[in-house]
Amino acid sequence: MKRLTLLLSTILLFAGLVNAQEKSLPKFSGLMFGDYFYNANTNNGANKDLNGFQFRRIYITTDYAIAENFTSRFRLEADQSLNSQTAGNKIGVMVKDAWLKWGNIFEGSDLIFGLSPTPAFDVSEGAWGHRYLEKTIMDLNGIVSSRDIGIDLKGKFDQGGMVKYWLKIGNNSSNAPEADKYKRFYGLLEFDPSANLLITVYGDYASAAKKHDAVTGAYDDNGAFVGALFVNYRQKGSFSIGAEGFIKSQQNNYAANGTTALASQSGNGISVWAYANLTDNIQVVARYDGLDPNTANSNPASISDVKGLILAGVQFNPVKNVAVTPNIEITHYQAAPVAGGASQDVVPRITFNWEF
């Protein structure tokens, strides 16, 4: 009996040690997506008929639980953008996330320090759920960066999480090191009144150095404000509909010509999308974006900068976490074509997306 008790105790002790070790091990995950694309038509004639295979995102992520209330993430990203390419024009790697979270620093709230997501469209991108096809409207058009180095406080006002908040102070330098004294201040409120409805209200202010007015000789404020509203209604496993709109205004950022004083510059955009599950493995998705980045000036070079985006596709999931999606992206430009191009880009693609 003593031997049996000793044996059972040893087994339980060993199982406890193994379980403790497993909890302390880092968790690795990954995400990749890319396409075969064909430029059937282009606003820039030099790019017409360009086609090929490309990776648009590669993520390798490490998550680690340091202690009960402290977790950390380190994520590397590779893609074919100029930001990631090596000096030899190869697919390069950059740091996407590097942050420490102090969970429940006070009841219902977490503190995050480091390179981490901004509040601008993190929630709406999750609801959109098709980042592998296209970025959300503010991300796609560079209105707000997806990442910033800074400090965040995020949490919920009520026990059930019906109202959440997210505050952030960042360098406003994206993934790059800080190069000036000016900062960006972000804020988001998220409302979840029911399991089917999601609403977010977002705003940020980016401080900047004063700008010299060549006409008045004064140095004027040049800060920028962005505000956005997102609404999503979904039936889990069936369909989802979303709409996101934003406005942007920058103080004293534009002079129509050399004889007028600086004036504020503003822009806006709206994105509407929907997807529906036809079967367990087939989904249809569609989206429309309208963008006018300069609405409050008469600069001949910028009044023709309105763009419209149409995206449609059919997603097939042969297995869980793998999607193959024939899709087409059409971008219409108000700007005049160049190099014998057309008024729009027409790009059919077959996009592959997988996670592990």
Could you explain the architecture of this structure?
This protein has 356 residues and is mainly beta. The chain has a single domain (26-355), classed as Porin, CATH 2.40.160.10. 10% of the residues lie in helices and 54% in strands. The chain has 3 helices and 18 strands. It has helices at residues 2-24, 122-128, 137-140, and strands at 27-38, 51-67, 70-79, 92-106, 109-117, 147-156, 163-170, 184-191, 197-206, 211-212, 219-220, 224-235, 239-254, 263-277, 282-292, 307-319, 322-333, 344-355. The strands form 2 sheets. A 16-stranded antiparallel beta barrel has the order 1-2-3-4-5-6-7-8-9-12-13-14-15-16-17-18. A two-stranded antiparallel ribbon has the order 10-11. A hairpin with a 2-residue loop joins β16 and β17. Mean pLDDT is 91; it is low at 1-21.
CATH architect. name: Beta Barrel
Q: Count of helices?
A: 3
Strand order of the largest sheet: 1-2-3-4-5-6-7-8-9-12-13-14-15-16-17-18
Write the CATH homologous superfamily. Porin
CATH C-level label:
Mainly Beta
N to C succession of SSEs: HEEEEEHHEEEEEEEEEEEEE
Structural class: mainly beta
Largest sheet: 16 strands, antiparallel, barrel
In the residues, how many domains can be counted? 1
Estimate what percentage of residues fall within beta strands: over 45%
**Topology-level CATH name:** Porin
Q: How many extended strands?
A: 18
Helical proportion? under 10%
Please, what is the average pLDDT? 91
Please tell me what the overall shape is: globular
- The stretches of 5 or more residues where confidence is low (pLDDT under 50) are 1-21
